[in-house]
Amino acid sequence: SSRTTSLLSQLEKINLDSVLGEANNARYVTSKILHLVQSQEKTRKEMTSKGSTGIEVILSTLEVKPFNLCGYGQIAHFHFITGLHFSGGRRASVLVTKGGTQILLQLLLTASKDTPPNEDLMVLLHTLLAKIGPKDKKIGVKARINGAINISLNLVKQNLQNHRLILPCLQVLRVYSSNYVNAVSLGKNGVVELLFKIVGPFTKTSTSLMKVALDTLTALLKSKTNARRAVERGYMQLLLRIYVDWHRHDSRHRYMLIRKGVLQCIKSVTNIKLGRKAFIDANGMKILYNTSQECLAVRTLDPLVNTSSLIMRKCFPKNRLPLPTIKSAFHFQLPVIPASGPVAQLYNLPPDVDDVVDESDDNDDAETELEIETENDDDKDQHFKNDDIETDINKLKPRQELGRPTEDLKMYKRFFPELSETFQECVLVSKEPKPFVPDANLNGPIVVPTAGEE
């Protein structure tokens, strides 16, 4: 009955017609809907309400009309602008549940075949994917299967100076990097080195691009393979220099998020033993300690102090108690220490030696295989029911066991006879009234009640 419903019905009829001449009518209808969406919040709520087919019509238009995408740019522009209005919170989830992620990835693959690709369309596609991506847990797997990861990566490599284009591309790569297999694959393709070209010294220009690049780099460095690659290329020293540079120039503390992003990158690298060693060799302990002392007076910089403290605690050498060295403020004397043994060997170690076994620098190829197997198992679970799950409620209830055996409780039998006796031999008392028998010992007249008297 509403104007929006009428326009959506017209657009749905146009989708069923494969004639290219219908493009003009489609442009007219979509421009009307676009005006309503941009001007009225009621229209946006109506299109995402339960029972509404607005999102289905929009997605079907993108799906059934992939031909001449650049020439059809006005309609595509409308749909993506509409999607941007719907991309917040629950509205983004609506697009995901309707299959919007798969359609957008397919459109990205189709648009990338044009030479050169339409920049406006690429910006809109990546912007929408970055907004709805966090709502789709399987977007990393879908992008890898469709080959969309390489498309975004090539756009970044070929347009390093085009900040308008690479900003949404980096946002999408950040979403893709949440998948462990994608993070390892991107690292092998040189994304870590590419991001360090963007993350540079202090500059007030392109701070938004710097923040997104640091977030993407943090997600990539959570992979042990990428963290080792960063250490081997000397990027730990570079990260510390970048952090000190921003700390010195950001006197008004306007770019605290960028400084925190650099610390998050350092924190990700120090998750492995090789990264912690590189941090200590680069004098990182002294650098973070001094910068933290200067940040204590400003309460808004508490996140920087907390993150720096976590990094320093993680990288400080770990030793077992008791510590007979100068590193300990207390001394614990053992009663007997064998001349040869593990305790004597620990006591004879130099003060700066980390005597705690660190297994965090193991090869993570097995972890990659485990991640792939987990994804395959998740895909299988969508089609097959797990028979190993117990569904009987009686079996799931915990069994209550007595605190002591039954034989020990027999000593209390005489206190509770009602629990052991059956009372089957008891005589039942009749409810009929007994005849009155006078008692000879009673003095005085005897009065016999007549019938009807109480």
From TrEMBL:
Keywords tagged on the record: Carboxypeptidase, Hydrolase, Protease
Top-rank taxon, per record: Eukaryota
Stretches of the chain forming a coiled coil according to its record: none
Keyword set includes Ribonucleoprotein: no
Keyword Secreted on entry: no
GO molecular function, one term: carboxypeptidase activity
Residue ranges of the region described as Disordered: 354-387, 434-454
Residue stretches of biased makeup (Acidic residues): 354-379
Protein name per its UniProtKB record: CBPC1 carboxypeptidase
Species lineage: Eukaryota, Metazoa, Chordata, Craniata, Vertebrata
